[in-house]
Specification:
By secondary structure, the protein is mainly α. It has a domain of about 160 residues: Ferritin (Up-down Bundle), CATH 1.20.1260.10. It is about 75% helix and about 0% strand. The protein has seven helices and no strands. It is elongated and about 100 Å long. Bound molecules: fe (ii) ion (2 copies). The site of one fe (ii) ion has 6 residues, from helix 4 and helix 5.
Length: about 240
C-alpha cells in the first residue's frame, strides 16, 4: 500500500540524496548512543555486542554519507530540491530519540529491538522502490544484513537478561513509541492550526480593523469639527 508513496518520495534525486545524508546523521547518532550504552553496562557480553553494534552504525553512517554525496555531486547545479518527506520515510530510529542513561538494561534492549525491527522493514521497503538506482540498492542490501543481526541479538539478549518479563518490556517499549508518535502528531497539528489562525488574522481581521479605523478617523466627534486647513493657516499668521 505504501509502495507508490515511497516510490514517489525516492524518485527525486535531490530528495533521495538529502534523505541518505539525514540517515547518515541518525546512524552516527545511534552509534554514539550504543558506545555510551557499552560504557554504562556491567554485563561483559552486552558490552561486546553494543561495541560491535556501535561500529556497524558508524559504518552505515559512512555508507549513507558517501552515497548521498555521490548523488548530490552528479546532479546538475541548477536543479531544485523537491518537497522534503521526512515524516513518511524516516531513518533507522524513526523520529525517536534514545536516552541510554535513563533506561534499564531490559528496557534499552526492548527499545533497540523494536527500532532495529522497524529499520529492517523500512530499509527493505526503500530498497524495493529503488529499482532505478541500483547503487543505492547495494547500500541498503549491505546495511540490511547488519540490521537483521541487530534485531536478532537484541531480542535474544532481552530474553536472557529478562527471561520472565521480556514480553512486558516489549509492550512498554511499543506503548512508549506510540505515545511519542502521538505527541509528535499533536505538536505538528498544533503548528498547522496556529499557522491557519495567524493567516486568517492577517488577511481577514487586520484589513477589517484598518477599514474601521479609517472610518472612525473620517467621522466627526460630537461637539468637535475638523479644522479647515486654510482657516488654520490664517489663525497661525495672526499670532
Ligand atoms: Fe544502522
Ligand atoms: Fe541497526
Amino acid at each position: 500500500m505504501l509502495g507508490p508513496l515511497h516510490r514517489w518520495i525516492w524518485r527525486d534525486p535531490h530528495r533521495r540524496a538529502r534523505k541518505l545524508l539525514r540517515f547518515a546523521e541518525t546512524e552516527a547518532d545511534g552509534g554514539r548512543d550504543l558506545s555510551r550504552a557499552a560504557e554504562l553496562t556491567h554485563d561483559p557480553l552486552l558490552r561486546r555486542l553494543y561495541l560491535r553494534h556501535a561500529s556497524d552504525e558508524q559504518r552505515h553512517a559512512e555508507l549513507f554519507r558517501e552515497r548521498g554525496g555521490a548523488i548530490l555531486r552528479a546532479l546538475p547545479p541548477a536543479s531544485k530540491p523537491g518537497f522534503d518527506a521526512n515524516w513518511f520515510a524516516p531513518g533507522e530510529r524513526g523520529l525517536d530519540d534514545l536516552h541510554v542513561a535513563d533506561q534499564g538494561e531490559d528496557a534499552l534492549l526492548a527499545f533497540l529491538h523494536l527500532s532495529e525491527k522497524t529499520a529492517a522493514q523500512r530499509f527493505a521497503l526503500y530498497r524495493a522502490v529503488l529499482a532505478h538506482d541500483p547503487e543505492t540498492q547495494v547500500v541498503f542490501d549491505e546495511i540490511l544484513k547488519d540490521e537483521a543481526f541487530h534485531m536478532n541479538y537484541t531480542y535474544s539478549q532481552l530474553t536472557r537478561v529478562a527471561p520472565k518479563k521480556h514480553g512486558r518490556q516489549l509492550w512498554w517499549a511499543r506503548l512508549g513509541r506510540l505515545w511519542k508518535a502521538y505527541l509528535r502528531l499533536a505538536a505538528a497539528l498544533a503548528g498547522v492550526i496556529g499557522g491557519l489562525v495567524l493567516t486568517v488574522q492577517y488577511f481577514v481581521l487586520l484589513p477589517l480593523f484598518a477599514a474601521l479605523a479609517k472610518r472612525a478617523e473620517r467621522r466627526e466627534l460630537p461637539g468637535w469639527s475638523a479644522i479647515d486647513p486654510k482657516r488654520n493657516r490664517s489663525l497661525k499668521s495672526q499670532y
